[in-house]
Fold these 3 entries.
Entry 1:
Amino acid sequence: MKRIPFDTSWPESVKLSHSYDELEFWGSRSDLGYTYSYENRFKITIDLVKRAATPPARILDLAAAQGNFSLALAELGYDVVWNDLRAELVTYVRQKHEFGSIEYLPGNIFDLPVEEIGLFDVVLATEIIEHVAHPDDFLRKLSSLLKDSGKIVLTTPNGAYFRNFLPRFSDCPDPSIFESVQFQPNADGHIFLPYADELEVWAHKAGLEIEQLTIFNNFLSKGHVKTGKLLPLLPKWLVVANEKLTQAAPMAIQSRISASLAASLRRSPPR
């Protein structure tokens, strides 16, 4: 994907997207905790998509923002549909696009009839489910966009992480009170951070099952607990080795010291 120079005339949402691209792909070292943790999330997500379907499978990248997953998957040979509520981002993503098949479909994907948008081999939803008031309904809607053998690949902050102070979804008697604030961008818009056991319950209610679940991004990779000041001093190989070590730990330990969760979901087989 192309590197785009900053343009002061851009809308604020595009300026913000460009600042994330600087951290995620273009070499900024201003927040290495963000950069390292994004690199981990990007690799794990692409690997999950590759396991779910092979090119030229049709992929929906939901709430795709600056389109990095869309662009990378298109370059791998997938037939990608980019979607986001912010239509002004389309021009920015187009400027970064070098090759591969991408269709741009801005707006609320759930307002469009399935007959119009078609079905997908993979629906990709990165860092979205924590922004919705009814995650089980959200998964059910995603499932309705899948082909019979399709998969949902999602990532989200991990609710069991020791630095999470948001309530569990199951502790909220009426999640509808959050409907007016759902789909807000960035961490300020987090409503609930999913726990692995809650994700399993939501999936079951939506007629889905978890095929694979990975917990990753320990507090060093994130630069948390004051380690952010250490990261510029540490060789990257040490941070990577530390991350691999914690991913090999028992799940109970991983879930407390790692901030991110990724999962692949499929429809539950008939009983």
Note: The CA atoms of residues 81 and 103 lie 5 Å apart.
Entry 2:
Amino acid sequence: MKIGIDAKWFFNGPPSGKVVVKQLLEQLFSDKYKTDEFYIFLNKTDQGLEFPYQRNNIKLVYISKFNNLISNAIIVPMYSKRYKLDVVLFQNFGTFSKIKNVVYIHDLLYLDYPQFYSFKEKLYLSFLKPLAKRANSIVTISETEKSRIIKHKLGSNNVHFVYHGVDLKFKPINEHDSLRIETFKKKYNLPDKFILYLGRLNIRKNISNLISAMQFVDIPLVIVGENDHKSENLSLIIESLGLNHKIIFTGYIDEDELPLAYALATVFCFPSYAEGFGLPPLEAMASGTPVIVSDRTSLPEVCGDAALYVDPDDPSDIAKKINTLLASNRIIDTFANKGVIQSKKFSWKIAAENLMNIIKTTHDS
């Protein structure tokens, strides 16, 4: 079977999308699928970057860089017809073309939570729905998102969900090199104990209420991530609450440093208002760090009984749950162990197998 894969995010893309594309390709390029041909669509602007997989059944197709909507609706289908592909996997935006296609919709949060999106974003994302309706199959990332897709009438019998996995590089602190740990701590001037938030600094992530909760918590909060186009003025909030001494911003950190950030944290707190999946809490769990998340959307589905849940609108509840964990090492160890066990339920190998089953079923239908 000749399979086209939209992998334009492989080198440069949204952080979570980049992780998904990289991890799925690594699994799809195993010997299990060596009889299939993969046509990997990448941006021409990334042509100078080394693609790490070299096999006879992998063909790289570099296309002119446009936004994802235009590329998927117009350009990728042109190449798909040229190479006579059997099925094409698109990221988020599908196509009006009659080629057989699977659309991987990462979430439809913008439809139910428009307040977290700019006018420009909502206008751009509005094309997602009509294109998805023409897909042969739709894949999303959680049962919660599958229900949302069906609710908004994008499909029913052709909608599937495939959970993300968790990279094996995320592991408890005692499995990391001690020299790397000390170098990392010094680089970012990290304290011995801290609460961690890691992710985009976007209003949907509810960092302002997490900061507000720190009035009632004794150890510092470390915030890892970059400002987003729809961010709050967190510095103003910190200043107004007199918390300058208790909040540490690291900014962006390299991918290979993320496992150390998770593993060093005393508690990981992710009080997001809405998630399609919630990969950071899962990575924190695999790192042996107890996790606190909001009780909304997909987070209870992913975290199960291995996390403590908060009302994201209530900073006092966030503080209460943090202090519950900090109350004793026994409680921290209990949730750390639960988290490691929960994280093992999520595998990129299984994700790739499920995705290939959907692609093959789409081809045969």
Note: The two ends are 14 Å apart (CA to CA).
Entry 3:
Amino acid sequence: MKAIKSISEIREKVKALKQEGKTIGFVPTMGALHEGHLSLFRLAQEHVDEVIASIYVNPKQFGPDEDFDEYPRQLKNDLAKCEMEGVSAVFAPNDNIMYPSKQYVRIELDELNKYMDGGSRPGFFEGILIVVNKLFNIIQPDVAVFGQKDIQQFCILQQMVKEFNHNVKLVMGPIKRANDGLALSSRNKYLDDQQRKMAPGLYRALRYTKKQISDGAKNINLLLDHQKRELEEKGFKIDYLNLFSFDKMAPVKDVTTGSKYILAGAVYLGETRLIDNLIIEIS
């Protein structure tokens, strides 16, 4: 399988598939593919006839002190994995293709990025909205699949699709985990052996907290503070660990019957930032 680098060529590929009456699924990635990405390809295949992937490390979603230069890039291996999974084509542009000149138009985001990753990484979701808008306009898929691990991204993109009238259905794939519970991520490669052994602690803290909330715990802040202290004692640096509303992704102190919440955390082990989340539905 060859990477398609030009917009015109990937559009011709999609056009040809659609002329055959095929429905198109799209899975955008930044490469360094792991089982989590592959599961999204498989999920897309359940909804459409053909799957297109993109591999592009988008500079617009990295802050000045983040890991853009270090982010793992392994295009040859990624293409082999895409081919094995039956992906029809891979769009792998460079920066000159995606941002060929000065960008005069920006996207602003209100409220939905105030907390969680948006609160910790200014400009992060604006950068994602720019590149996903471009990719949707280039590929024009029927279905696009994103992972639950980046749940705030999914919810924001869902709002973008609604407000910008994109003719695409979004599907959220479940988090894929290692045997010890760690959410799979391309950034897990940054962990040393000791950090890798510690890393599932975030998932264990989230699972414990979810059980307590589901069992009727009332003082959620006290429960979360206790888990933060335990993680810090084990060597984690807490970015955030909180219960958020599903619609606005804002912190909540109490839960109500019939509502849906996101229990989410972001932590550092050394320089490596890990994120994870669980969805809680109160019945």
Note: The mean pLDDT is 97.
